[in-house]
Design goal:
Two copies of one chain form a homodimer. Chain A is α/β, with parallel strands linked by helices. Chain A is 42% helix and 15% strand. The first copy, chain A, contains 16 helices and 15 strands. In chain A, the strands form four sheets. Chain A has a seven-stranded mixed beta sheet with strand order 4-10-9-8-7-5-6, with helices on both faces. A four-stranded antiparallel beta sheet of chain A has the order 11-12-15-14, covered by helices on one side. In chain A, strand 7, helix 10 and strand 8 form a beta-alpha-beta unit.
Chain lengths: 438, 438
């Protein structure tokens, strides 16, 4: 490798050519770590360049950490090549592969029709003109109209597309919402478990409280009150609303997993019960389509919607435009509705067979909690182990568990059926029983 | 349409059936706005349901705004159907179609190989297993490795994939960065024009200043210092760094449009000049690929990288997983590099012909400012109009302009060549000249 100088180049840039020449020699370890660089004098003679040009190149190389100056001795190559390129290659702290995973947040591989989704993405990617420009900050207009229709039909939520904001996940929406709530000081969450939510509020200086109905902002997931899928009955929803209104608190309704309410019709949303005032409605498609599709939306009540519109233009849209276009047509063609029905059947089915697997292995009187919604049940184990050691032990045996609570001689764990294939329920429960006993 | 009651249903839910029955009649306007609802007594007799069930249904309908109670008279249908469904249909304040758009932030339709990108998205969507789970909060590992290689090769930036955070656009990254800068109180921007950036800092309580090198945080775009593409010379970059370090200020380097530095080799990034300390590097692909592809990344210096890792798990990834997978392979196969070369040629070419169009129409001594980078030039017009009226007048004639500054008898506008086809330059300039004179 010989340095070919472009002599027409302004001297200001000759130093960069020298710089790149040595940079590459060092990164390719042709100048190995520790080797001495040619002296400025020698180098400038060889390359027929001014000493200053060489010096500038060396200074730049030193600034970038390729070489280091040693007093009265000259410049030496650092171990930068080794440090920066090679180690980064193997992926750090990779999750171990589990034999049975009761704690996965993934979805069942049977649950999603990839062929169908690929078709919609493909046709979205054919809309060249739309993709050549930035998306609408609030989310694509046609998707917002389609969502307005969808939630009116399925959740009795009446709103115009103007009140819907689309974002790449709930957090992106909270980043828009929190700054609109400047006068609110504290927020209440049902449990400490939804850290993705509380983190954002903390970042904006909110004080986080739990189950505090006197809070300025009340964050609730009425269809997912407990990990085992208890839902909030209408009576309690009305109570909550009346109390919140009397105090002027804002309710944030995260309708997470409302689609998975099996045992009864979905309960009216807080948003609809409130007639669209004093409640922000949050919906997401992560559980319904694919966790990897980052499209969520919120419905703002009139006052917040007006506030938002003043700033809307300054928040770029975060969700992929192509995926928004695809999702819009996907919904219009009725696939979201049928996908919901399919998932509802699938998970109700799986939860039922998980329950019977639990009864078969742990006995018909096994202390199980199961709700009207969701994809999980809570099982209390009689065990000599404490939770920590049980979960560690299981992990080493390839069984992943989600801890709920423990007491003397008892550990309660959450078993999720969402991503585990049904045929694994029996062996997984059997393994769990062994581990809890020995 | 007759109400079919599912009598097996728990009474608790019969009221919902009545509710849906009337909801649909109202939305389909079979019960038109203003019409009176049957009395509770009459309705309960007809449906053979308890008065309470009917009353619950009516109360719910009222809560949702479908009907309204009038004292001593009964319930009446509101105009909700009209209000909520029909108006939302036509899209509000749609941008007019421009004949010539000198202010578009879009990209040239020749600039992007959709066929190619479609192929990469398609193969990404075949990785079912990966798409069934949530993405890595920090961004897909393989993409971060690929980016680390890419920016080392093209921007002399040495970092490990662990220091790279991916997000759906610069704002999503600032949402992660700002909370890491708790002790910093104020931030400086080069100009007030980058509102998308300053808004986020404001939302986190930062005080915004401009061109203030004594600020705690200094946000700069060295390759895009002015709208007409002036870049910051190495000497000034080194000054800035030394001053920032002496004061312990953090520099945020937004490398926006560095790829479009035509007239010379790209200047070393602040990040590399600083040896990776005290500088956060921001990169984006909106201008390079498609504005609608929402993938940006930041490189954190060691101290911030460590802080971030403590919270990383609580921030869900915002960028589409499929697009991350596609982009990773796209870069590995060398398409980003060639796309950059193609764009650089294309825009340099277009800027040159825009310049000659301006000289042809406005004379060879027309006061033009043009930088070493970017896709725009600044043109000062001698005109009797003030800026506002000139821009309005042009708009009504189908010519869109971006205002820069004005003084007595002069208006300076920015002409962007990025999305306008080259053959329009002459007619567009001719129209601009007419409008500025009459």
């Amino acid at each position: 490798m010989k340095l070919q100088l472009d002599r027409k180049n302004k001297t200001e840039h000759l130093y960069l050519e020298v710089y790149h020449y040595y940079k590459n020699l060092i990164l390719e370890q042709k100048l190995p770590s520790g080797s001495k660089m040619p002296s400025l004098r020698k180098c400038s003679q060889e390359l027929k360049l001014s000493r200053t040009t060489i010096e500038n190149a060396y200074l730049q190389l030193a600034a970038d950490g390729y070489i280091i100056a040693k007093a009265q001795s000259g410049y030496y190559v650092t171990d930068i090549a080794a440090r920066h390129i090679l180690p980064a290659r193997e992926k750090p702290d990779k999750e171990p592969e589990y034999l049975y995973d009761f704690a996965s947040s993934g979805v069942d591989r049977e649950s999603f029709r990839f062929d169908l989704w690929r078709r919609y993405i493909k046709s979205a990617l054919r809309q060249d003109d739309r993709l050549l420009s930035y998306g609408e900050p609030q989310g694509e207009w046609d998707l917002r109209c389609t969502l307005a229709d969808y939630i009116r039909e399925h959740r009795n939520i009446l709103c115009s597309a103007d009140d819907i904001v689309i974002g790449a996940g709930i957090q992106s929406l909270l980043h828009i919402l929190c700054p609109l709530l400047k006068e609110k000081k504290n927020v209440s969450f049902p449990t400490p478990s939804f850290i993705q939510g509380s983190t954002i509020f903390e970042d904006y200086g909110f004080r986080i409280t739990y189950r505090n109905k006197n809070s300025d902002v009340i964050y609730v997931s009425p269809a997912h009150m407990t990990k085992w899928g208890e839902i909030m009955p209408v009576s309690r929803r009305l109570e909550l609303l009346h109390h919140a209104f009397s105090r002027g608190s804002l309710i944030i309704e995260d309708d997470f997993e409302n689609e998975f309410v099996y045992l009864q019709k979905p309960t009216p949303s807080l948003f609809s019960l409130a007639g669209g005032k004093g409640v922000v409605y949050l919906g997401t498609f992560s559980r319904l389509l694919l966790p990897s599709i980052r499209i969520s939306f919120m419905v703002l009540p009139p006052d917040l919607s007006a506030l938002y519109r003043q700033k809307a233009a300054w928040y770029n849209q975060t969700a992929s435009k192509a995926e928004q276009i695809a999702l819009c047509q996907f919904i219009r063609d009725g696939h979201l509705a049928s996908q919901t029905r399919r998932l509802k059947r699938l998970y109700a089915q799986k939860l039922k067979s998980l329950l019977s697997a639990v009864r078969e292995i742990f006995g018909s009187d096994a202390p199980v909690q199961i709700g009207a919604a969701g994809t999980s049940l809570a099982l209390t184990l009689q065990t000599p182990h404490n939770a920590a050691s049980l979960i560690e032990k299981s992990k080493s045996e390839g069984l992943r568990l989600q801890f709920l609570k423990e007491s003397e001689g008892e550990v309660t764990v959450i078993l999720s059926c969402s991503s585990m294939p049904a045929e694994d329920f029996i062996p997984a429960c059997r393994l769990l029983k062994e581990l809890s006993q020995i």
